[in-house]
Specification:
Layout lengths: L4 E11 L9 E7 L22 E3 H9 L7 E5 L7 H13 L5 E5 L17 H7 L4 E4 L4 H4 L5 H14 L6 E7 L2 H13 L5 E6 L7 H13 L3 E4 L2 H4 L4
Parallel strand pairs: 2-4, 4-5, 5-6, 6-7, 7-8, 8-9
Antiparallel strand pairs: 1-2, 1-3
Helix pairs in contact: 1-2, 2-3
Amino acid sequence: MNIPKIYVSEIFNSIQGEGILTGYQTLFVRLQGCRIGCVWCDTKYTWKKSDKHTHSAYDLYEEIKNSVKPESWICITGGEPLEQITSVLWLAEKLQHNDFTKLSIETAGVIDIGRTGNIILPDNKEILDLVATGMFFSISPKLKSALKERFNIIKLLELMNVWDMLIDAPFRAQYKFVVSTTEDLDIVKHIALNSKTKHYIIIQLEESKIKDVSFIAECCKFIKLFPQIRFTVQQHKVLNLK
């Protein structure tokens, strides 16, 4: 059997602090490698891959199996996990087949970054196979504050349409938009008015805005206009957890 290698930054047990799974005890498997380059990224140390931090996917499975019980949540994050999709798929299937069924993946929803746009649509076989594992997808498309001139609203809406087709069962995914400016809020407004997604939509304060009273007030006004959207903060940052 050809077992793929996987680039791992760190593995740690904590409390999920983001999205609808907030509060659950979770084992985080943080992978290396990300070509997106968000301006305000809080895990820039994961961007580059290092051969010093490779595991076989099987060894990683064994470490996970020995760290948590099957009823625990396991979150594969990064970095950008879809840059190692073959390895992630192998790991997810191995976990699922051994009763670890509470799996989630944090992704920007992209496969690659082009010079003229912020996404290339995820339409290859491995994505479909990963969806078939039953994993919960936390899809966090990046907005203007993160991508600057690379941002493209048309491509973002196309991205959401593709993911909606891939994950057709309602509420098996969340779209988590990190907001840092009123322009970001305007973009999410456009999304709310033009997307027909059946999944959760969340706005999450970018870390530097956690104590920005005026911007928090803007977010609260936004939620009053769009009550189908949830407003969240990184709970683990507020509680000073990993």
